Every structure is written in structure tokens, then in C-alpha cells.
Amino acid sequence: MAPVTLPVTLPVSAVPHDCSAHKHVKDASAKTKADASVVLDDGVTLTTYPEDSSPLGLTWGAAAPEVRGPVVCSRYHDGLAKHNAIGAHSGPYCVYHALAVGSKQLDPNHVADYTNSQPAFSIPEQKAWYTETDIVAMDPLGHLTPFIFDETAKAENVQIRPSISVTKASLQLFELKDAVANNRMKVDGKIVLNRNGDVAVSKVAVEPVWYLPGVAQRFGITENELRKALFQDTNGMYPELITRPDIKVFLPPVGGLTVYIFGDPAYVSDPTKKVALRVHDECNGSDVFGSDICTCRPYLMFGIEEAVREAQNGGSGVVIYFRKEGRALGEVTKYLVYNARKRGGDTADEYFHRTECIAGVRDMRFQQLMPDILKWLGITKIDRMLSMSNMKHDAIVEQGIPIIERVPIPDELVPPDSRVEIDAKINAGYFTTGKVMTEAELKAVQGRTWNDVV
What we know:
Blueprint: H1 33-40, H2 65-68, H3 79-82, E1 85-87, H4 94-102, H5 145-148, H6 150-156, E2 164-171, H7 174-181, E3 199-206, E4 210-211, H8 212-219, H9 223-233, H10 240-243, E5 249-251, E6 257-262, E7 275-281, H11 284-287, H12 296-312, E8 316-322, H13 331-343, H14 351-359, H15 372-377, E9 382-385, H16 390-398, E10 403-406, H17 419-427, H18 439-442
Parallel strand pairs: 1-5, 7-8, 7-9, 9-10
Antiparallel strand pairs: 2-3, 3-6, 4-5, 6-8
Helix pairs in contact: 8-9, 13-14
């Protein structure tokens, strides 16, 4: 493999390009039977063993891209014989990819054309990209793989896909418009673009790529214990977790994350600049639809406003949105818990107990893996942490990133029906500058009942 020097210089502006050769194929069944036979060649291969293939070299944490090598998990082309990762790209959306192939909407050997898709801004290269333990839950080179390993993909006849994409956009949120209208936020024409409250933002989407030895270490278990749990608890979804101990990388079918950067992206890793950070875990009911049973949307909007303010003050504002719906228990479980809470009186002293009764655990977000994105971005300190979570705080500090100030959600932003949640969490260890209620006092904190809902 030819040496690769980072940062790779990629054109920011569009280049002339004709994508007519890649127009949508409505029915891939029109292709030859030889093409379709890729899926079911001589039968379905349920798993592979070390003697069955020769994986492309992949040395996690190697000091240079050409030594590290690309992540290859696709079986198409020569991938079955050369793949060096278990699982599939696109996280939970890999199943939809399979449906597209199975329903003959997508040619399984489609070759992606990445012309003009290169990052819209540069992410400064970080030392953490080239260590074995700093980043274990994402591919540090995931935004560059189609470009730096293009010749490898052609020479080896394998698919090498990105797991990170980098773009720019603007946000339009009612809360930001309100902040401008009420003079909490000033229009500067660069970050806050106009009186409508439109805000310029740089965005990074990340799919999970796990280095299994490093993930196991974060959880204090052995790699074998991790592999066994992942295989058995998913009803045997990925047999190679058991049969391929030589393959150390796994692309799990779980949600990823999105980074929203306000201000100059280069400031994020500049230790002379202040950083305000909100790490937010998905809550569709509140974040999108405004449910008032929790503080999720109010805290998210507060975090965005504070991040914008930090950027306007010459620093950097960062909001990271993780796809971990309902504390990673899922929305079905979350709504079952809501039912149990409302039928049981919905008091703060029973808040966690209701979840434990149904799910068997309070929380499955596992913040141990969360700081990886901070190290990838080059964040070495957090001046203002826009979160009260002790779990997020502890996970970040344990990874060597100091937090200077912790900023709780202002009381006036807490919806009345979410006092149950916030008071219970404060009692359980969430940061606060106010009162920590006793167990007896929590019994008197009661949410809305169904009789109060029209």
C-alpha cells in the first residue's frame, strides 16, 4: 500500500461530475442471473473460520493509515475472503440495505461513487487516532477511508466504505428565534445569521465501529466474555463473533451519533479556546414532539443556545447527539414504564424502580464509550459541561478530560410534569447547585396522572 500523509487535501467545492452511470435501478432482477448469484452462489455461508479466509491487514492504533489499514466488512466482491471486520455498515440501517438487495431494488455489487462527497471542512488530525485504547468505539479514519484507501479497494476488489461524514448546514429552531427576539442572542452574521435565528453549524455523522479488545477493557470484562454476550443475547446474530477470534473489529447494528459544532471547527481542539459541551442522548418524544414528561428538549435547546453563545464569545460550542432512545432501553420499553408510572401514582421516589421492574436495569446507555468522539475531535478540556449527569461526567473525567464547570438546567425551563424525573435523578447523583431531596421528600413529588390528560 502506498504511504498516506494526513491531513489529506480534498477539494471543498464541487467538481463537475456526471453520475448518470449510477442512476437508480428500479429492478435489479433485469440483470443477469450471474449477478444475482452473488447472494446465493453455492449456498449461504453461515459463518467463516480463520482457515477460511485471509483478512486484509488491520492493526488498530497503528501509527499511520497505511500501517493501520482499512475496515472491510462487506462480503461482496472478494470481501468474503478478505473481510477484516464482523457486522455491516450503517448501524441499524444495515437491515434496510439487506431488504433493498433482497427485494431486488439494489444491486449487491453496486460500487459507490464518492465524487464531491468529501468532508466539507477539515478535522485536525489527533494523536488519539493512532493509539489502541483512546478510541475504541468508532473508526478514527472513517471520514477519509474512501479517499485514502481507494487504490486498496480497487487492487483487492473489496468494498471500503466510510463510517463518518462531515458537512455544513444551518439550524432553524423556534427556541433560537425566540432567543434572538428576546435579546438573549445577538445576530452577528457569521454564527447567528439573521433575526430569524438561523444558526450556522458544522456537522459530523458517526456510525459505530468497535475494536472489541478495547470495548471489553472499558467494561472491565474479557474479550471472550464480550463476544459471547453479543452473540448469545442477540439470538446468534453474528456467529463470527465466536468463530473468528482473529477478527477484532465489529460493526454493531446500533445507532450512532451526530456532532453539531458552532463556531470555527478548528477551535474545538485548540486548548486556548473555551469549549461548551452538551452530550445528549436521544429522546424522540421530547426532542421532536415536545412531551413534557422529561427535561430532554428543554435541556437540549438550552445546551444549543449556550453552545452558540460560547462560539460568539470566541470559543467553541459543541452538541453531541447520541442515538440511545429511552436510556438505550428503546421507546417501547420507555412507554411501558410511562404506563406503570402513571398507573402507580408517578412519584419521584418510585421513578427508577418502575424502570427496573420492567427492564431489569435503570440505564443501558453505557457512557464508557461516549468520550471517544471527544478524543477524536481533539477536545482536551471542557470549560462548561451543559449536563447534570454524573455518569457522563465520570466517563469523561476517567478518560483524562477535565471538566471545569458543570451547568445545570435552569429551574424555569423544567416542565412541571418532569419534576419527577429531575428530582429523582438529582437524588441519585445528578449534579445540582440547588437542593437534594430526601427519600421522604421525593414521595411528595408527583407527576400528572392520566385523569389530568384530556
